[in-house]
Amino acid sequence: VPPGWSYEHDMELGRFLYNHNERVLQRGDCMTEHVSNVEVSSQVGDCGAASLTDNQTYSFWESNGPAGQHWVRLSMKKGSIVKKLWLVLDVNGNSYVPRRVAVYGGPPNRLQHLRTVLINENSFQNVCILRNMKIHLPVLEIRFLECRDQGYNVRLQGIKIKSFWEWDLILNSDIFQPARLVRYPLLEGVDTDVLYRRAVLIQRFVQILDSVLCYLIPLFEDSTGTFNPLR
């Protein structure tokens, strides 16, 4: 801990990082900005790949073929890094709702397994199936291994991503210029290298906490007792 540093300094540094990083990441439509093409394994009629990105609740993609042979492939623009990838489920589809999916990523001819997800039957609409990638993956492929009730085909209302450019990920001491610290009085006058090292520590802590937070809260039957030690 830097000399003279306090919890309030950490809070102010956290606000600074949020204002100069997270808000930038949340701008615009990530699908339009970072995805160059969406392909699907098959489709029924007009229920094709375009329905996955049109943000319409009445449209959907529906596959057509044997069980376990369905996929959606995202071609990512050069330099994009995925922070979160969601499936938007058609919760009224019953046997069309995916139960188990696998995510692969990498160059088109060398896709590697990233994660397999078992989707809870109580999940409602948006389900996160991938998070916190560290490098650019030219292709992301979602493979639908199993549907509910032994269904054959998949139906999705959409796909959403939260992503950023790899150059936005770079954290260095240059971002702590005096002109940027005017609204953060506790940080003014602190050596930029000290701010940088503390910022790296905070970001690492946030990544670790975020990866386990879903297992800690909410516990509705004991929410106060659970939250106080965490805080």
UniProtKB/TrEMBL annotation:
InterPro entries: APC_su10/DOC_dom, Galactose-bd-like_sf, HECTD3. It holds the Pfam family ANAPC10. Residues 8-188 form the DOC domain. Gene3D superfamilies: Galactose-binding domain-like. It comes from the Eukaryota. One of its GO terms (molecular function) is ubiquitin-protein transferase activity. PANTHER family: E3 UBIQUITIN-PROTEIN LIGASE HECTD3 (PTHR46654). This is E3 ubiquitin-protein ligase HECTD3.
